[in-house]
Amino acid sequence: MVNLSSVHGQRAGRFRAEDFPGPFRNVSQLTQAGLNRELASVDVAPLPAPLTGKCLVVIGGTTGMGLSAARAFLQAGALGVVVTGRNPESAVSALQTLGANARALTGDATECRHAIDAIALALEAFGGFDGLYHVAGGSGRKMGDGPLHEVTDDGIRATLQLNLDSLILSNRAAVQRFLERKTPGAILNMGSVLGWSPSPKHFSTHVYAAAKSGILGFTRSVASYYAAQGIRANVLAPALVETPMARRAAANPDILRFIHTKQPLDGGRIGRPEDCDGAATFLLSDAARFITGQVLAVDGGWTVSDGQL
Asked: What domains does the chain contain, in order, with CATH numbers?
């Protein structure tokens, strides 16, 4: 085995021309050839997959961003993944996509038993529970959300229940299991850049923004309280991503022009579910074992760009 630091630190004069085949025109060539020769003799063990052996639950994982993440988790070595959703047909389709190391549970994420049962299923099917990814949520526009002066009483209750209540319930279930089993664990909550970076012309659903802002404060408080028990909690905050929730925006030419400059990365486009998979995998892995209470925006540049209306 070669000590790479010592190889890299060699002075150029310590490599002799006669040690290398062929003509060398300058010292830098000698140095590089010597380094290449030493590197060729190094045995490099492959890195383990980041989620090897992990058993994970994805609340809202039968479609869209949750399903994409569940697929990525299995590809990253997860032992098993439980995905949940409302629609039985979507659950069947998700299982066909994910394969033998997945289980699906149908139900309503706003009901307190939903996450409890999903975690129990992970323990039963795979023998463990290491992390929760809460993706479930959505726009309250059709339920009465919108600009504050137009918001209905029902819209307030329904939007908060869908986006904030459900997340608090799933997080509570996860923390209770981690404490009961005396194991560390990871929680990743789906937020939104609209929780702190509003877009008044095109995305004016104020109760939704309140819910997503609430997720930030809630997650940081949880992270602070349970850090000593090895329980981590972080937020992944996307901007506009191509999901069923984004159909209204994706079909609006004015919004697409806005997004071209508001999310300027990669040509200026709407995000794709897989754009968030790498960040989610990392934050639920042991590589992020020293990270908690953080908010990671995967936003194509939204939060650092003006956007042209």
From this structure: 4-40 (no CATH), 55-304 (3.40.50.720)
